[in-house]
Every structure is written in C-alpha cells, then in structure tokens.
Design goal:
Helix content is 37%, strand content 26%. A hairpin with a 5-residue loop joins β4 and β5. It has a four-stranded antiparallel beta sheet. It has six helices and six strands; from the N terminus they run αααββααββββα. It is of the alpha+beta class. The two termini are 21 Å apart. The protein has one domain.
Length: 144
Amino acid sequence: MAALSTGAAELLRRAGWTESYRIDTGRFRQVLESRGYTVHRPVLEFLEQYGGLRVQMRFLGRPDHVEHWHLDAEEAAGSFNVRDVHEMGLQVGAQLCPIGNACNGHWLLLMDERGRVFAGGEGDVTLLGDSGEAAIEDICHGAG
C-alpha cells in the first residue's frame, strides 16, 4: 500500500478510516460478480482497506461547494450499466470493475486488473492513478 498524504489521510479519517481499517469484501464480491463483473485481486485488496468509506470535502476557492464521493462497490455497481462499463474498458484496454463513485455521483470509479483506477461517465473514461491510493490523492486534491 502506498502512503497517503496527510491531507488525504485526514479526509479518510473523518470518514471512519484508520491505518488498521479492514472490512470483509464478501458482499462486494458477491454483488459485483452477480452483475457480471470480474473481480480481480487488486479490487478486493483495495476494497478491504478502503471499502465502504463515504467522504465529504470542500475545495479551496469554492467553500460553498461540497464534494461527496464513496468507495461502496455495491452502490457503484448499480449506478451505471454493465454494458457501458465494458465499453469504457475497451477504450482503455482493460477489464474494469466498479469500486465507488465520485464527483457527487457523476463519475464511476473503476479499477482494472493491474490496480489502476479510472473515472468514467457519459462515454468518457480517464486514468486517475496507477493505484487506489494515487486515485484517492487525485480526488482529495481536486484534480479529478
């Protein structure tokens, strides 16, 4: 696991995360597979460490705007069509699996078999980071 910046770790702590946070990923796996997704080892490892977290944050320069994002793979799997996720995977040459939502639900967070995280929505897909932690940093710093 890559180390998180102080700012990102603090946002996650406010959502209930600690360095020893671990959850059972059985429910996530069951739901994802029942909806037709392949659940790779990096997805399960990431969700075990961060799954279920719901984060609220404000961006500098926009104090009136609250950003909500979560790492609830079950909810994320129901927020977009499996066929659309498959098409996004074809765009990036990877098999993608939902891990959460960002941008107040407008983006689907997706992880591939290598552990890279993408944000997808409305036919567009963008690499957020080469790891789950890199994607968390991207979201926490308002780049995503």
